[in-house]
């Protein structure tokens, strides 16, 4: 069963070494992420599952390494303690691993699940139900961004549909509104480059019957990209 969830953005810029001189611009987002992870720890879960968007779905064991060398920074991370073999973490899960290391998370076993950013809503629902099967108290750390089309300088340029999409996503994440998250438009999310759509829909399915309440801790678009932080408990 799902005991708690934290929703965080996943830009590598969240890591100060990657952001360099622009690092202070996301200080508030980092603080909100730390608060959301504190909610996870307070739930005393048996297991932590980290979801993040990627080009293809995959699972990563505790101890899987990642790095930010692809972003010009000699910085390595690891998904919890241990040393697991296999391919490196995708960027979204590497950011999650950095957040976990930053907050000193070592309490429970952890697993990473890369979610195909194009995964259809029905398959997101099936994955969410699968993750929470059994009697373990599961905590979810859900990485993903909103639209990338909020301003002229945004990665996806300006799209008038971006702000309403993000407003509804932020509202649904803050209210733990499962039907609204499940109903997010897959095609529109793709056009707006909203990488969080699939992980959020996995979360919505995982939270069915859990009776969790949500709190929105951060909702900004500093680079024309929607960044949200929410905590469910």
What does this structure look like?
The protein has 233 residues and is of the alpha/beta class. It has a single domain (2-232), classed as LigB-like (Protocatechuate 4,5-dioxygenase, Chain B), CATH 3.40.830.10. Helix content is 33%, strand content 21%. It is built from eight helices and nine strands. It has helices at 16-19, 27-42, 91-102, 121-131, 162-175, 178-182, 186-191, 197-206, and strands at 2-8, 47-54, 58-60, 65-67, 76-78, 110-116, 138-143, 214-220, 227-232. Strands 3-6-2-7-1-9-8 form a seven-stranded mixed beta sheet, sandwiched between helices. A hairpin with a 6-residue loop joins strand 8 (214-220) and strand 9. Helix 4 (121-131) packs across helix 8. The radius of gyration is 16 Å and the shape is globular. The two termini are 12 Å apart.
Write the layout of secondary structure elements.
Layout: E1 2-8, H1 16-19, H2 27-42, E2 47-54, E3 58-60, E4 65-67, E5 76-78, H3 91-102, E6 110-116, H4 121-131, E7 138-143, H5 162-175, H6 178-182, H7 186-191, H8 197-206, E8 214-220, E9 227-232
Parallel strand pairs: 1-7, 2-6, 2-7
Antiparallel strand pairs: 1-9, 3-6, 4-5, 8-9
The helix/strand series, from N terminus to C terminus, equals EHHEEEEHEHEHHHHEE
Compute the gyration radius: what is it?
16 Å
Strand order of the largest sheet: 3-6-2-7-1-9-8
What is the 3D shape? globular
According to CATH, the fold-level topology is: Protocatechuate 4,5-dioxygenase, Chain B
Low-confidence stretches: none
Q: Which structural class do the helices and strands define?
A: alpha/beta
Largest sheet: 7 strands, mixed
- Count the beta strands: 9
Question: How many domain regions?
Answer: 1
Query: What is the correct CATH architecture?
Result: 3-Layer(aba) Sandwich
Q: What is the C-level CATH assignment?
A: Alpha Beta
Helix fraction?
A: 25-40%
Q: In DSSP terms, counting alpha (H) and pi (I) runs of 4 or more, how many helices?
A: 8
């Amino acid at each position: 069963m799902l005991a708690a969830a934290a929703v965080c953005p996943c830009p590598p810029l969240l890591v100060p070494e990657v952001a360099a001189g622009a690092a202070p611009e996301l200080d508030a987002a980092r603080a909100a992420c730390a608060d959301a992870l504190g909610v996870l720890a307070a739930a005393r879960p048996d297991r932590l599952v980290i979801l993040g968007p990627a080009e293809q779905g995959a699972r990563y064991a505790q101890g899987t390494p990642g790095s930010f060398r692809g972003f010009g920074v000699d910085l390595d991370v690891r998904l919890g303690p241990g040393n697991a073999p296999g391919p490196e973490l995708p960027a979204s899960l590497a950011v999650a691993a950095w957040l976990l290391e930053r907050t000193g998370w070592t309490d429970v076993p952890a697993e990473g699940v890369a979610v195909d950013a194009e995964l259809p809503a029905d398959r997101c629902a099936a994955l969410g139900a699968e993750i929470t099967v059994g009697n373990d108290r599961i905590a979810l750390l859900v990485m993903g961004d909103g639209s990338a089309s909020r301003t002229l300088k945004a990665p996806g340029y300006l799209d008038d549909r971006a702000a309403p999409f993000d407003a509804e996503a932020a509202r649904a994440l803050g209210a733990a509104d499962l039907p609204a998250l499940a109903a997010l438009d897959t095609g529109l999310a793709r056009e707006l480059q909203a990488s969080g759509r699939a992980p959020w829909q996995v979360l919505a399915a995982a939270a069915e019957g859990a009776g969790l309440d949500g709190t929105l801790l951060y909702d900004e678009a500093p680079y024309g990209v929607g960044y949200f932080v929410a905590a469910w408990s």
